[in-house]
C-alpha cells in the first residue's frame, strides 16, 4: 500500500486532551514557520467533545506551530505506521503567544520564577494508570506475577520512551487492580510538562499494540484506588541545585520554603486547575493516600505537598536528590497548566515572603473546621463546583492569567459537568475512564 508519512502537530488543551492536526512530513519546514490553522473556540471543546459557551464565537484565527524540540518519532517495529508527533504552541497570526495556549502559560510562569529568584525549575511527573480490559490475574498489588503478565507491554513502553528522548526510570505493578505506575527522570522547564504529555500518549499507544487500553482516569471505582499524578519539583541556580539547605526547616532552602508556603496558601484556589474533573474529588479524600488538606508532610503520602526522602549520605548527593512533591493532581489536567498554576502559587509565596510551613504529623481528618483553622489549615474543595468557585473568587490567582482566562476556564468546566448530569457516580467514572 502506498503511504505518505505524516506528522501530527499537537497541543495539551484545557481538558487535558492532546489534540491538533496532521500534515505531510515533507511540509515540515513550512509548518515550522507558519504552523497550521487553529480556531479560538477550540479551547472550549470539553473532554467529552461538547463545546462550552465561548466568548470567541465563530470569529478569529490562530496558528498551531509545531516545535521541533518536542518531536516524537517512534517505530514500534510491528508493521504499523510509526508514531510521529510534535508538541507545539498556539500563536496569533502576528506570531505572539496566545493567552490560552497551555505551553505559553507555563513559559510565563517559568519566566516569573526566574526573574524573581534567578532559579530554574526541574520537574518530573509520576503517572498512575490502569488497564481498562483487565488481567487474567487478581490480587497482584506490587506482585511479580502481575508485572510478568504485562512485561511485554512494560518493556515496549520503556523502549518507546527512550526512543522519544526521555529517560525512563521505573515501571511498577501498583497496588490497585490492573494498576501500574510509570516514572521518568526530571526535565527542566517546559520540557518537564512536554515529557508528561509524551509519556501519557506513548503509554496509550503501546497499550493498543498489546490489545490493551490504558486509562489515566482519576478514579475508576470509588470503592477502590484512584490514579494520581505526583509532580516532583526542585530548583537549579547557576552553580547547581538550590532546593536544599542543611540549616533550613526540614532541609528546605529559603526559596523552597517560601515557594512551598505559597503553594499551600493558594492550593484551594488552584485545585480546579490541577484536579479538574468531576470525579477528581472522589479521589481527593482522607485516607486514600491522595490529598485532602493544604498541608506539608515529611514522608507522608496523605499530604498535599511532601518533602521527599533522599538516599544520598553526602551533602552534594542530598542537594541533588532533594525535592518537593505536589500530590493534589491527576491526568485530567494538562501538565502544562497544572505546573504553571503551582509555579505561580510558589512565586506568590516568595513575593509575599511567607515563612516556612510546618510539617504536619497528625491525622487532619480528625479535626473539625475550627480545629483546622486554628492550625492554619483548610479542607480542600470537595467538588469541582466548589473548586471552581474558589478559583474564580481569588483575584490574586485569576490575575496570573489572561484577563479572559477565568471566565473561559470556568465555562469550559461547567460544560463538562453538564454533560454528566443525570448520571450516578459509577456512570461518571465510566465516562471519564473512556476519555482518559
Automatic annotation (TrEMBL):
- Tell me its EC number(s), please: 6.3.1.2
Q: Which UniProt keywords apply?
A: ATP-binding, Ligase, Nitrogen fixation, Nucleotide-binding
- GO BP annotations, alphabetical order: glutamine biosynthetic process
Family annotation (Pfam families): Gln-synt_C, Gln-synt_N_2
Q: What class of enzyme is it?
A: ligase
Which cofactor(s) are needed, names only? Mg(2+)
Primary role: Catalyzes the ATP-dependent biosynthesis of glutamine from glutamate and ammonia.
Write down what this protein is called.
Answer: Glutamine synthetase
Give the species: Roseibium album
Name of the gene: glnA_1
Amino acid at each position: 500500500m502506498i503511504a505518505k508519512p505524516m506528522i501530527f502537530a499537537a497541543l495539551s488543551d484545557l481538558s487535558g486532551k492532546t489534540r491538533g492536526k496532521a500534515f505531510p512530513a515533507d511540509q515540515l519546514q513550512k509548518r515550522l514557520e507558519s504552523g497550521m490553522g487553529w480556531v479560538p473556540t477550540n479551547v472550549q471543546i470539553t473532554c467529552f467533545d461538547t463545546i462550552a459557551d465561548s466568548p470567541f464565537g465563530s470569529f478569529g484565527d490562530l496558528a498551531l506551530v509545531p516545535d521541533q524540540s518536542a518531536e516524537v518519532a517512534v517505530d514500534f517495529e510491528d508493521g504499523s505506521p510509526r508514531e510521529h508527533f510534535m508538541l507545539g504552541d498556539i500563536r496569533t497570526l502576528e506570531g505572539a503567544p496566545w493567552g490560552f495556549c497551555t505551553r505559553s502559560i507555563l513559559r510565563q510562569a517559568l519566566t516569573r520564577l526566574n526573574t524573581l529568584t534567578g532559579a530554574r525549575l526541574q520537574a518530573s511527573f509520576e503517572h498512575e494508570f490502569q488497564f481498562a480490559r483487565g488481567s487474567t490475574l487478581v490480587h497482584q498489588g506490587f506482585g511479580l506475577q502481575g508485572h510478568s503478565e504485562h512485561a511485554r507491554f512494560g518493556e515496549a513502553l520503556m523502549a518507546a520512551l527512550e526512543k522519544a528522548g526521555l529517560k525512563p526510570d521505573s515501571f511498577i505493578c501498583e497496588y490497585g487492580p490492573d494498576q501500574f505506575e510509570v516514572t521518568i527522570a526530571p526535565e527542566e522547564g517546559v520540557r518537564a510538562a512536554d515529557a508528561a504529555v509524551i509519556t501519557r500518549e506513548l503509554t496509550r499507544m503501546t497499550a493498543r499494540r498489546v490489545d490493551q487500553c490504558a486509562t489515566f482516569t482519576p478514579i475508576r471505582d470509588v470503592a477502590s484506588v484512584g490514579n494520581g499524578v505526583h509532580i516532583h519539583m526542585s530548583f537549579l541556580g547557576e552553580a547547581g541545585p538550590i532546593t536544599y539547605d542543611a540549616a533550613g526547616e526540614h532541609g528546605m532552602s529559603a526559596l523552597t520554603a517560601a515557594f512551598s508556603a505559597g503553594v499551600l496558601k493558594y492550593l484551594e484556589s488552584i485545585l480546579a486547575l490541577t484536579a479538574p474533573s468531576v470525579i477528581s474529588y472522589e479521589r481527593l479524600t482522607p485516607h486514600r493516600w491522595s490529598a485532602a488538606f493544604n498541608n506539608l508532610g515529611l514522608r507522608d503520602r496523605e499530604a498535599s505537598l511532601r518533602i521527599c526522602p533522599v538516599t544520598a549520605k553526602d551533602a552534594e548527593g542530598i542537594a541533588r536528590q532533594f525535592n518537593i512533591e505536589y500530590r493534589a493532581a491527576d491526568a485530567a489536567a494538562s501538565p502544562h497548566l497544572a505546573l504553571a498554576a503551582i509555579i505561580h502559587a510558589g512565586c506568590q509565596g516568595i513575593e509575599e515572603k511567607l515563612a516556612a510551613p510546618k510539617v504536619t504529623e497528625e491525622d487532619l481528618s480528625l479535626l473539625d473546621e475550627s480545629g483546622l483553622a486554628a492550625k492554619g489549615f483548610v479542607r480542600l474543595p470537595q467538588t469541582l463546583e466548589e473548586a471552581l468557585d474558589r478559583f474564580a473568587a481569588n483575584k490574586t490567582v485569576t490575575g496570573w492569567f489572561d484577563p479572559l482566562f477565568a471566565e473561559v476556564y470556568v465555562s469550559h468546566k461547567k460544560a463538562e459537568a453538564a454533560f454528566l448530569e443525570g448520571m450516578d457516580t459509577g456512570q461518571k467514572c465510566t465516562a471519564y475512564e473512556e476519555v482518559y
